[in-house]
Amino acid sequence: MTQFWSSIVHELTPYVPGEQPRIDKLIKLNTNENPYPPSRNALAAIRDSADESLRLYPDPDATSLKSAIARHYKIQTNQVFVGNGSDEVLAHVFMGLLKQDKPLLFPDITYSFYPTYCRLYQIDWRTVPLNDRFEINLDDYDDRGGAIIFPNPNAPTGRLLPVLAIEQLLQRLPNRLVVVDEAYIDFGGTSAIPLTRDHDNLLVIQTLSKSRSLAGLRVGYAVGHPNLITALERVKNSFNSYPLGRSAIAAATAAIEDDNWLQETRRRVMDTRHHLSRALTERGFEVLPSAGNFVFARHPQHDAAKLAQSLREHAILVRHFNQPRIEQFLRITVGTDDQCEALLNALDAIFSAQ
Ligand SMILES: *Cc1c(COP(=O)(O)O)cnc(C)c1O
Q1: Cys-Cys link to 200, which of 64, 225, 243, 262 (CB 3.0-4.6 A)?
Q2: Which residues, at least 6 apart from 133, have a Cβ–Cβ distance to it below 8 Å?
Q3: Ligand 1 centre from 283 Cα, in Å?
Q4: Mind listing the domains of the chain with CATH numbers?
């Protein structure tokens, strides 16, 4: 009964998230979830929040969470915006800040939600090709475009830009808004957040879904000049005054404050990434250098789509993107050492059967 659809609905291309299987015997290395549990303090905060106060609406400004984020990064509370996952934060950024006269610029290979939001909000965009080593070259982002958005490290390639390159971009294009999506920054990069003090054209977005092991909670945030934050608050308060519930605010606040657990788990993920990259290279894969909790790899003798299917038959899920330039790559989330071992054993079995 599509006759009732708004015309824009016909034009949308919804984002397709990685599979969340209903059977739990599968080893999930397909959606970049953290294999380690969230901070115990965050879980305790959820339990403590489960009382009769749930009868009341939450704080619409999530002040305790914004304060924790501000303390953590040594910035002001009015430089922080929070939302229901960084995908929602991104949606408000696209609607409130990235729809400009000139087209939005982003890499040809990047987070596939960006073109989806452009279609939703009818934003004109241009893609800028990664170089042949799958790196973003910020010199290719010139004055012909409007705003700029890219993840750092980039997804799904995992390749990292140094903060210095971002600082040079901000200086070269002081009248262009630059949005850096730092979903994976804790796994080996340096955040651009300190640059927001001196550059009012920078907005940095982070999430609790990856390095803080809280994908199920749905909390993300943006950091930037208070004027940028005000724009996002205006959009948010025209959409949903309470994007974060009481439990989410309490747990996210506790998770941000538990830096020890972040340091412990990110170290484990980075160590396993190192071993996994080496083991895949030994098996003939070309593995891009990754600063994320995933690796992006291709094998010269094995078709990526077939390999993903064979791994599935071994109860291991990885992500394959059927997209030009990267159709021979697999994106493999860094799991526990045991999960990565199971992946390598499955690959050995697949290769020796051929
Ligand atoms: C996972 C991811 C997000 C979304 O994270 P949520 O906070 O779970 O919505 C945003 N950007 C990139 C590049 C991601 O990989």
Answers
A1: 225
A2: 159, 288
A3: 30
A4: 2-37+260-352 (3.90.1150.10), 41-258 (3.40.640.10)
Nearest to 144 by CA among 173, 111, 110, 114: 173
Distance 354 CA to ligand 1 centre (A): 37
- Structure confidence by residue, pLDDT tens digits, 267-315: 999 999 999 999 999 999 999 999 999 999 999 999 999 999 999 999 9
**pLDDT tens, position by position, 127-177:** 999 999 999 999 999 877 799 999 999 999 999 999 999 999 999 999 999
Residue 84 predicted with pLDDT over 90: yes
- φ, ψ of residue 228 to 5 degrees: the values are -70, -40
Contact between residue 86 and residue 181 where contact means Cβ atoms under 8 Å apart? yes
Please tell me the predicted confidence (pLDDT) of residue 16.
84
Distance from the Cα of residue 177 to its chain's centroid: 19
**Rounded CA separation 274/282 (Å):** 12
- Would you call the peptide bond into 156 cis, given omega within 30 degrees of 0 as the criterion? yes
Instruction: Supply the DSSP symbol for 104.
Output: E
The atom number, within ligand 1, closest to the CA of 86 reads 7
Verdict on whether the full-model pTM lies above 0.70: yes
pLDDT at 22 over 80: no
Q: What is the rounded CA–CA span in Å between residue 178 and residue 333?
A: 28
Q: Which atom of ligand 1 is nearest to the CA of 207?
A: 7
Ligand 1 atom having least distance to the Cα of 209: 8
Q: What number is the average pLDDT over the span 90-94?
A: 98
Pairing of strands 125-128, 104-107: parallel
Contact 98, 149 (CB under 8 A): yes
- Long-range (24+ apart) CB contacts under 8 A made by 95-99 are 95/121, 95/235, 96/231, 96/232, 96/234, 96/235, 97/147, 97/177, 97/179, 97/203, 97/228, 97/231, 97/232, 98/123, 98/146, 98/147, 98/149, 98/177, 98/179, 99/123
